[in-house]
Each structure stands twice: as structure tokens, then as C-alpha cells.
DNA sequence: GTTCCAATTGGAC
DNA sequence: GGTCCAATTGGAA
């Protein structure tokens, strides 16, 4: 089914469904695709996994990377230097997730021994990030995953450090 | 200087030096080179870094891998399956180092926080191992290094576990 | 009993 | 303050 066959569509809802399916097919074919927020809501496409959606709405346009329609902050995305896969991966993580999410989740959700973090980073978004970096930097997925592990760890540590030193220091006024 | 020029050699020691240099050049060009123990001693070639040398003498023929004349147990080397780089790296480590060395050293010698291990694995031998696996398995050095880190860690843990459980259990006779 | 992966931590830059 | 690497540890396979 490479396109939309008019002969098989009878109702408006069928047509809408077919259009949405066709849109998803096309987006899977595109490496990245700029989709302004307004346009996406007008055509009625709900993000498949939109739990950490608010931060992109608050901070400007977003673009779609990968076949899972993962959204990334456009300004941050366009500033990424793809010459170094580790820096690119870290920057892309910052463009997709907010700091709080990066600090409280891990790649798989396993092994929450010390922090009170709950679950794992959205696997669909992670897949899109990995595919993007793999294509742009020509590097294996396993190495990208190690960078993601480190990024979560470093972000959590940074946040812990700030909590420990900034909160008490506000007392000395 | 692709060969040995007779015109420039005057004394026997010069000739011997030239022969040794030429041998090293040739060995650098060879992927691996079987050198029985006896032959090596007859021609007077001392290993460049021969501190953990005894275990190979005690357990059969050895072969030379890499440009640093690193020796590996021949039987273990020839049993290596190069289809999986991680298993190949681990097996090659077992063919070059004894268990005690693997358990007490680390890749760089850094961070001996818990065990009483002294230093690092011989960097020249490590280089030869990395070059060998890289060539045979077409995998990057960074991944091979991670396997070496894990192998030392796993070996140390295994030895600790055995010490803790085997030693006391011999009392019950 | 070993291998493999992920999380965590220390420390250097 | 973030990035990077290595060592360590837990746990699954």
C-alpha cells in the first residue's frame, strides 16, 4: 500500500485514518522532519508517547527525528555538532528530554540502588536518538548507548551536587 | 632500509644486530608468527618485556602476536573463535596472561580502591592483543579495551569468591 | 562458573 | 560545570 487508494475509502473517518497512516509512512522515510507545533495539533495527530511533551511547547518550535515521531527542541537540535558522536548524543538528549527526566531515569530502568528515580527513558525516543546519531556520525549503537548511560549518570550526579550545596547556602542572608 | 645491506656491515656484532633488526621488521609485518621456545633462545633474542614469562615455558609452545613480540600459549591461541570479538579478546587474554595477573592488575593501574592489586597489565602486551583482535574481528580498540576492563574485573571477583568459600570448607575432614 | 550489560562512583581534564 | 574514562558492583543470561 504505497499511497492512498480513493476507491477503498468510504467515510470521512476512513479518509482521516488513511491520511494519518500515510503521514506516518512518509515520516518514517524522512531522516528528520520539521513539524511546527500548531500544524501538528491542527491535523489531529497525537504524539505516540507524549508524556514529557510540555517542555517543548514552552520553549519554541520542535522538530521530529526518527520513525517514532520523537520531538526535539529545534534550536538545540540545529546547534548540534555532529563531528563528535559523544557530544552530539549528549546534546541531542538535552534537545529531547528535560534535565529532570535525564536525572531521574536511566537507560533501562534497572538498578535504582541509590537514587529514588523511577523508570527508564522512553525507549521509542531513545531508539530515535540512537538511529539519528548512528546515521549522522557512523557509529555503532552500543557506543551511543554507553554515552546515554553516562549522560543520565552525570546529570543525576550534577543535580545531587546542586541540591546539597545550593539549598543550605541560601540561609546566610 | 628494506633489507640487510652487506656493504655497511663490518663486524660480527653489527651483523647480529642487523639480523635482529630485520627479524623485528619481518615480525611486525606478520599477523602472527610461531616461534618455538628453543629457537628463540638459540638466536639470542630476549623478549622485550619478559616478566610473566614462566607460565608459557611451563605449559607448552608459545607463539608471537603483534609487533611487541608478545607471547601467547599456542594451544589456547589456536582454539580461539574469532567470530565474537568479546569472547576472542577474553580467550586471548587467557592465552597471554595467567589468572593471577588478570586478577590482580587492571588496564591502566588506576583506581585500586578495594583490592590490593598493584599495577597495570603490561601495556605492550595489551597493545598487541588489541591490534590482533582489531585486525581479526574488525572492531574498534575502544570496545576491546572495555572487554579487557571487564575481564580483569570478573577474574578478580571470581578469585575473591573462591578464596572466601573454598578456604574455610577444607576444615571439615 | 563465565560472560555480558548497566549503574554507580572516583577522578582527571 | 560538563565530559570522559576506568574501576567496581549487581544482577541477568
Keywords:
homodimer; 3-stranded antiparallel β-sheet; globular; disordered C terminus; DNA-binding
Provide structural commentary.
The structure is a homodimer of 173-residue chains. With 173 residues, chain A is mainly alpha-helical. In chain A, 55% of the residues lie in helices and 6% in strands. In chain A, strands 1-2-3 form a 3-stranded antiparallel β-sheet. In chain A, helix 5 crosses helix 8 (141-169). Chain A starts with 11 loop residues before the first helix and ends with a helix. The model of chain A is unreliable at 1-17, 23-30, 36-53 and 169-173 (pLDDT under 50). The chains hardly touch. Chain A binds a DNA duplex (13 and 13 nucleotides) through helix 5 and helix 8.
Could you give the topology of this structure?
The structure is a homodimer of 173-residue chains.
Chain A: H1 12-29, E1 32-34, H2 37-42, H3 54-58, E2 62-65, E3 70-73, H4 74-78, H5 85-96, H6 99-104, H7 123-137, H8 141-169
Antiparallel strand pairs in A: 1-2, 2-3
Chain A binds a DNA duplex (13 and 13 nucleotides) through residues 86-87, 90, 106-108, 110-115, 145-147, 149-158, 161.
Sum this structure up briefly:
The structure is a homodimer of 173-residue chains. The first copy, chain A, is mostly helical. Chain A has helices at 12-29, 37-42, 54-58, 74-78, 85-96, 99-104, 123-137, 141-169, and strands at residues 32-34, 62-65, 70-73.
Tell me the strand percentage band of chain A: 5-15%
The SSE string of chain A, one letter per element, is HEHHEEHHHHH
Average pLDDT confidence of chain A is 73
Give the neighbour order of strands across the main sheet of chain A.
Answer: 1-2-3
Structural class of chain A: mainly alpha
Biggest sheet features of chain A: 3 strands, antiparallel
Alpha-carbon Rg of chain A, integer: 19 Å
- The shape of chain A, in one word, is globular
Q: What's the total count of β strands of chain A? A: 3
State the distance separating the first and last CA atoms of chain A. 69 Å
**Unreliable residue stretches of chain A:** 1-17, 23-30, 36-53, 169-173
What is the multimeric organization of the chains shown? Answer: homodimer
Which percent range fits the helix content of chain A? 55-70%
Number of helices of chain A: 8
